[in-house]
Amino acid sequence: MSGKPRLTYLNGRGRMESIRWLLAAAGVEFEEVYLETKEQYDKLIKGGFLLFQQVPLVEIDGMKMVQTRAIMSYIAGKYNLHGKDLKERALIDMYVEGISDLMQMILMFPFSPPDAKEKNLESIKERATNRYFPVFEKVLKQHGQDFLVGNKFSWADVQLIEAILAVEEKIPAVLSGFPQLQVFKTKMSNMPTIKKFLQPGSARKPPPDAHYVETVLKIFSK
Hints:
Largest sheet: 4 strands, mixed
CATH topology of the largest domain: Glutathione S-transferase Yfyf (Class Pi), Chain A, domain 2
Order of helices and strands: EHEHEEHHHHHHH
Structural class: alpha+beta
Number of strands: 4
CATH class of the largest domain: Mainly Alpha
Strand order of the largest sheet: 2-1-3-4
Radius of gyration: 18 Å
Distance between the termini: 33 Å
């Protein structure tokens, strides 16, 4: 064992991508094991590796962690990305939960039936521009700082830049009415650890394609 966190998931974004983002932003190298067959997944369940019979699975500090939120909370705490006190942690958690709601829509979009894709894309745009992005635009404008909480880089900032870029892939002009978020996006994208993660050849996964959707459905079929 190299001591690096070991991530077990499919070779695609899904629920693991936010974990990859957080580790990369913290400057932590990790290893990945990709599930390609239902047999591999069933073997993990039978071996007792998956507490709730679900992936992502992250092996870190001698633990076999499941549940995305718990994994990310641990990583954020370990690498000092979870605020300096309870109030900051509460704010970070609140922002992360909000962003996660938007990310859930993006996560499910590739699995939309063809005749629902346009409607679902419109829903993502509507939620992003009317419910979620205005919150963060206002926060950044009100306190005039580079980061969302405590003027210090945190888990919430990582989640937000991931969400911005994910929405922009589908709706390129989505930030046109959000000048603060445009500045935030530029600053975050130029942070050394994030800049590295955004380069070709990094552990960042491409947008889901038909093959990824097919693999997901095959592995997790009942």
